Amino acid sequence: MKCGVICFLKKTTVGAICFWMGEWQVRAVRVWLTDGRNETFGKPSGSNQEYVLKPVECFTKLTLWENGAGTRLGAIRFKTSEDGEFFAKMSSWILKTEYPMDVGSGYCLGVVGRGGSDIDSMGVKFLSAVQSTVLTNINYPIINQLIPNVTVEELKSITYQNDSSSKQLQTIET
């Protein structure tokens, strides 16, 4: 990755991601952002797997693995809000150390890491979990401008007034 970073532009999230896998490592990663930019880290060769996110889709779970020797990225697995699942791993070595990531709000802003021909290490940047929201410039129509969508029907009406301190009983028949 050459200490590569792709992310962090306003109104931009990851739209697709592709991994090229080797026998004992992730060889390369390509990330497409929703603004059209893309960047490739490592040297793509061999088989690859790609995942394209839907516009409303976000991550619900993400796990990374090292390659067992501690020298390269070995695998990535994630699940999304649209029931999507992705799992790309090295082809020969057994996965060992698993690193579950905090996905925050689930909106992926990009990736960070380092490498040359292969991916030595990788991290995924997420927007923090949303703590609160504020609605601004909300306009409600004035109540007298609304036309009710109901039919008003008066069955019977009578008004009583008690000018004394004693209780009164009134009956209305319909």
From TrEMBL:
SUPFAM superfamilies: Mannose-binding lectins. Pfam families: Jacalin. Residues 1-128 form the Jacalin-type lectin domain. InterPro entries: Aerolysin-like_pore-former, Jacalin-like_lectin_dom, Jacalin-like_lectin_dom_sf. This is Aerolysin-like protein. It comes from Anabarilius grahami. The lineage of its organism: Eukaryota, Metazoa, Chordata, Craniata, Vertebrata.
